[in-house]
Amino acid sequence: MASGIVGVPLGAWLGAALVKRWGRAHAVICGVGLLVSTPAMALAMLFTDIYPVAPFALMFFGEIALNLNWAIVADMSLYVVIPPRRSTAEAFQILISHMFGDAGSPYLVGVISESLKRASSPTESPSLRVQFRSLQYALFVTCFVEVIGGIFFLLTSLYIVKDKQKVDRAITEAEVQSAEPSHSNAPEEDIGGE
């Protein structure tokens, strides 16, 4: 919880400060945050049965890096979509992130963990050590997903400026069109002095 309280505002502040000077900053911050979080989270999981305090510290800093992207992702979703479609885009972004993250990942980790348990002790009840290791190894899937996400954010940084410019142009064109008087709505002139 504390890492979220620190990470989300820190990401928003970094994004606001850097995007003015460098248009790709939002996507790069998200990508780097995920890639920095990955080794911290992996080491934290590896050290759980060796060191009592190190995993908490590593997870705290890993989660701060992971939480950098929450406000920025919402911002990016809005500025690469034209205004009439922004609420739908934001709703889909929230739906997909929760569907694959909050809702889907515990199930996936559980399925992998159960498969590893069965593979380790196919005929007998698995020991506590086997249960622990199975869950620990299954959780490494989250690190893999973080790396993929970081790579996708860095790829996004190659296109985000052009996409934002396209949306800005579309908004400007729509404003110009709405400001021009329409000839079909103009009152008809009085013909013949009547």
From TrEMBL:
Any coiled-coil regions, as ranges: none
GO cellular component, one term: membrane
Localization annotation: Membrane
Signal peptide: none
Principal location class: membrane
Stretch list, region Disordered: 174-194
Keywords: Membrane, Transmembrane, Transmembrane helix, Transport
Membrane spanning stretches: 27-47, 53-82, 136-161
UniProt KW Membrane keyword: yes
Record membrane topology: Multi-pass membrane protein
PANTHER family (UniProt xref): PROTEIN SPINSTER, SPINSTER
Protein name, per record: Jg16617 protein
Organism: Pararge aegeria aegeria
Phylogenetic placement of the source organism: Eukaryota, Metazoa, Ecdysozoa, Arthropoda, Hexapoda
Name of the encoding gene: jg16617
